[in-house]
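Consortium newsletter contribution from the modelling node. Members have asked for a concrete example of what our holo predictions look like. Here is one, prepared for the adenosine-5'-diphosphate complex that several groups have been discussing at recent meetings.
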Amino acid sequence: MSEEQVQSMTDGMHIIVDALKKNDIDTIYGLVGIPVTDLARHAQAQGIRFIGFRHEQSAGNAAAISGYLTQKPGICLTVSAPGFLNGLVALANATTNGFPMIQISGSSDRAIIDLQQGDYEELDQMNAAKPFVKAAYRVNKPEDIGIALARAIRAAVSGRPGGVYLDLTTEVLGAAMDKEAAAQSTFRIEDPAPRQIPSEESVRKALKLLSEAQKPLVILGKGAAYAQADSAIRAFIEKTGIPFLPMSMAKGLLPDDHPQSAAAARSFVLANADVVMLLGARLNWLLAHGKGKNWSPQTRFIQLDIEPEEIDSNRPISAPVVGDIVSSMDALLKQLPTQPITPQKQWIADVASKKAVNVAKMTAKLNGDPSPMGYFSALRTIRDVLAQYKDVYLVNEGANTLDNARNIIDMYEPRKRLDTGTWGVMGIGMGYAIGAAISSGKPVVAIEGDSAFGFSGMELETICRFNLPITILVFNNGGVYRGDDVNRHGDHDPAPTSLLQSARYDRLIEAFGGVGYHATTTAEVKNALLAGLTSQKPTLINCVINPAIGTESGHLTNLNPKSAAK
Ligand code: ADP
Ligand code: TPW
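And here is the predicted structure:
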């Protein structure tokens, strides 16, 4: 080829970057190697931030949470086979949680893969991804990259959002194409997540059911938080006076100290409500499937969801409203004056008195200051500091560390609480913290069980390399759930749940230039947390917690197998 011809050509790596840029993708989370290293370099050269991780799962988690926070698909870039598989866990988790994410992975030579002749990092990635994703596509021609990305973005963000896999073969990444033709093959996608308007009839039925209710309840889920219909949801709840219960990641959609919050009377409202309106929340295990001792068989349901197949998944839904939550809330608010909704006064009073009793019980528990520290005293201390920093993102994982922090730490703003979500998965901690810090530019506090932290702990180096305003509190009780169990065999191996309680997690971050604190008292926790929040430097606080107070499986003890045998 002549020099002139070479100048007029581009390749697959440049084309995908061009397509991403045209769609306002400003960040790629990933980990490089054959065949995607140059792709990452080109992206950076074009002004796309490349956040390089130590493990693809954390890169994927960062991408997924940035998708949740921004409604734009978070992009994760991985190398073939093992890198792809490492990222796939995060992609599957994004799908399960309804977060828009695209994992773009390089893959090896198709001809060799298909004949299974043993290529470097050989794997039929697209087909491996399929069961775990909303959609999976493979690009075999450079001129298809623009269309492929359009399909991937639409699949990720439209309807119920989810994880999408986009396979770029080594051949496509290196394939040459005329620059001008390439530029024309990529484009900005028009209206990637079109509004889905609910039928007026469905809205009318829902309001009618609510107006007949005496003891109504609204359950807010993370689908409602994702939709960013914050002011309409608040207006609806305040105009109707209905008590609301936030699911974990919907905490803060209305502030937790709102007078209509029924969070402190959770069991009471679930068991006694006559009409429950599910707003972007699924009746899955997190709500005991709407069945059992927690629920009344008489309760009738309204469900607002974008996914028609979700309706009736666990219990019959009397009034489904299928649409996107922004449109559905608009429609509900418009029709509201025609259907006065007046929850029974006694119901409101009963919820309030139940709350008061439970809050008093909790306050008594929280007021102690035992030594060694317990979950309650440490979390009360953190709660009081964070009440002064309401715009901080809170990442939370573990078992006891998760359950107790969810109950104790109030949230005041929407989409600020990021946690283990629908699967209850460990390992999201550092990825979510990094994704939130990068996509928002705001400080993040991560409250981590010591076991939970271990899944993504090496990303401390990433946090320090990018100098992110993240403060991590590791609740070090020396084990999974608790740290005092023993080996039933009596030999020297530690118990299955054991971890080193002597571990100095604070020194890990020091190795990368961050700031570490070792805290054995609530005063030390408070001072270290304040220091992290004011300095905005990468900070880790090793909080030493009593090893003997955790509950096995946290609040989920009942989900362990029940065996009659001993
Ligand atoms: P939680 O765990 O907080 O209860 P889930 O993840 O179980 O929440 O449920 C979220 C629901 O919200 C899903 O069924 C999803 O289809 C729905 N959803 C997501 N985005 C939207 C949206 N923009 N409009 C309406 N429903 C949505
Ligand atoms: C990917 C199983 C649930 S909770 C947990 C594990 C390992 C850790 C609990 O200990 P931690 O918190 O973090 O120290 P605490 O306060 O109770 O002591 N692998 C994955 N996901 C899950 N959920 C597990 C294992 C699990």
